[in-house]
């Protein structure tokens, strides 16, 4: 297993591998034969950035059997998804502010994220597996009351695309099988979500294959695999959110009402 991280240090953006609290700096392209420079940095000395720069962010709906059963939704025959604006992306450890234009409920959604490592179009499941670079933690923050505000049109993209509503990280972990792990979200010190990734309707290889038949997936693209039971509202003036997946780590952010 390798953990890849992007960061800003001394005014410059870099990337490398993370081991404990030490970053081994690399040069070149994270997704195309990166080379270690021999230089190291302490994690505490850098600003951690989102671990990739996606050309697009895809977010799944109704991709877990347990949540589908709770909501009395049928199992979809193909992935149901939306696009989340790239301008919603935010870094780990940052504070996300309530939009001034919206006063309703804002909810957290702890999720697994897939990061693509090479261009992928019309891929078989085997080829899709080879196109996956690794996995990360996602918090798909949502202005829940906007979705059904207009009876004539479900506003999924608007609800999920406010500035800052797309934090992911802190690393991309390669060489792991996420379907053996769970997603755990802790809000203000209390566990709110803890669900198994083996419950996914469309697991990573199948999901990437199907999506690649709709659109070309590019290196760095982020696929948010959808969430399961335990989604809830952030009610306090300041809300700490920690999304943890074993092997990847913990994505920490604060939401300020």
TrEMBL record:
Molecular function GO labels: acetylpyruvate hydrolase activity; lyase activity; metal ion binding
Tree of life domain: Bacteria
InterPro entries xref list: Fumarylacetoacetase-like_C, Fumarylacetoacetase_C_sf, Rv2993c-like_N
A Pfam family matched in the record: FAA_hydrolase
SUPFAM superfamilies: FAH
Location of the Fumarylacetoacetase-like C-terminal domain: 56-254
Gene3D superfamilies per record: Fumarylacetoacetase-like, C-terminal domain (3.90.850.10)
Residues annotated as domain Rv2993c-like N-terminal: 4-51
Keywords: Lyase, Metal-binding
Keyword Nucleotide-binding attached: no
PANTHER family from the UniProt entry: ACYLPYRUVASE, ACYLPYRUVASE FAHD1, MITOCHONDRIAL
Name of the protein this chain belongs to: Ureidoglycolate lyase
Source species: Afipia felis
